[in-house]
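Predict the holo structure. Ligand: flavin-adenine dinucleotide.
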Amino acid sequence: MPSDNKNCAVIGSGIAGIATAIRLAQKGYKVTVYEKNSSPGGKLTQIKINGYRFDFGPSLLTLPENIEELFTLCGKKTTDYFKYNLVNPGHRYFYEDGKIFSAYHPTDKFIEEAQLFFNEPTLSIRKYLNDSEKKYLLTKDMFLSKSLHKFRSYLSKASILSFLNFRKLESFKTLDKSHRRRFKNKKLIQYFNRFSTYNGSSPYRAPATLGLIPHLEIGLGVYYPEGGMYSITTALVKLANDMGVRFVFNQLVEEICITDRKVTGIKTSQGIYDYNLVISNMDVYYTYHKLLPFIKKPDRILNQEKSYSGIVFYWCINKSFPELALHNILWSEEYEKEFDVLVNKKLIYNDPTIYLNITSKQTSTDAPEGCENWFVMINAPHDTGQDWDKLVQDVRTNVITKINRILKTNIENFIEGEEITTPIVLQQKTLSAFGALYGNSSNSKFASFLRHPNFHSKIKGLYFSGGTVHPGGGIPLCLMSAKITSEIIGAA
Ligand code: FAD
């Protein structure tokens, strides 16, 4: 039986909450996960509409080894729980002039296709992708796999090497500027610029350090879990259960109880429970504002600009489109304008880039025969009080017009069911502050240092894990966050 100081509560069953619970259970902790919703996963969940299945949020999986690591750690065989396959080409990109670019893995194949399509020298593309890999390896050792808020993190050989090579990260240049220096073709610049959207930032403001992301997709590959993205959640919950983690659903945590700068428990909608170790997987902004009202807030961190959000249309389409793949992009021709409207005006450009994900291309049971489940997503600002009904109405019209123009169809005739997620829905469903997808935005060069640490420096027993704290959002980083948090707890 674990002692009392090995008895802990995790608030929230997002991917990082579940992964933290697994890691702590593996270290011998008795873990209970409290979730306000009736099912686990947070943003990584699913919805069903009239015989169609949709992943609710995340659709793109890279670095699946972060998931595998959890099974290995627990002495289990991954394939007994979770299976995934490479998707190649990873994405198909559609342009207004009728051209289509397919982005392949691995790097050599990508370069061969890209050189022909964008008419840029092979050498420039190869140099860019080599630099992308270097950036990834440098940031992985320093910024992604350790706490930035513990002195010991800076003492390892890998960290020292990262600092010595800091210049290679191009932190003082924007991503767009770095791409313009390297390439002439506007379409190739736009292609590489888009990777900043993977953490909710603008290529015209975010540092060129984010140039590490193309390596993840092109160099290491895009993957798709059998049964859809939601199977990541179900597989990890099964593992957690097998490791003895207890899940309590439909229970909103209302307060983290603190006495004399020590955690003493949590207060939920159904009672008070004693714990001297609590890990919040809830958005850190709301953790302070809703659960820790009497604690001094780290305002500088909490009030950083938030990442943008999205509007998702889940459409049941009673037709099939052979020209489309699992991941498709329909480009806006005015990318800079699109981000200006999004980031500066907090609105949506009238010809936005459309991301179209169709999982029935991989899992035929996700839609009835001859039909497709379309997840249609547009970048949208986080909530600052916009008129969302009007915005959604306008966006829907613009998106349909663009799809009809590019795919030469009349898509409205084939939509036989629909649901819509807006920043407001996201906020209500997962308590994500302002409906932001990734917590604080990564537009600043100091963004890595302006995320909340994985622990509270003044309150004993209080820890944080998830997309709104270090090292950031997205499934791979959330899993790294869980690892960092559990390692800090283990070392405490
Ligand atoms: P969340 O998923 O935010 O979960 C937090 C959980 O805590 C929720 O279940 C919530 O109900 C619960 N909770 C909150 N407060 C309380 C409380 N007081 N009491 C009890 N329970 C509480 N990432 C990718 O890697 N690839 C993608 O393609 C991708 N696309 C995305 C598309 C969309 C539309 C969205 C919304 C996100 C996308 N992301 C993507 C980002 C990714 O989903 C998130 O970074 C990640 O899932 C966040 O996980 P988390 O562990 O931080 O917690």
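The CA atoms of residues 350 and 394 lie 8 Å apart. The radius of gyration is 22 Å.
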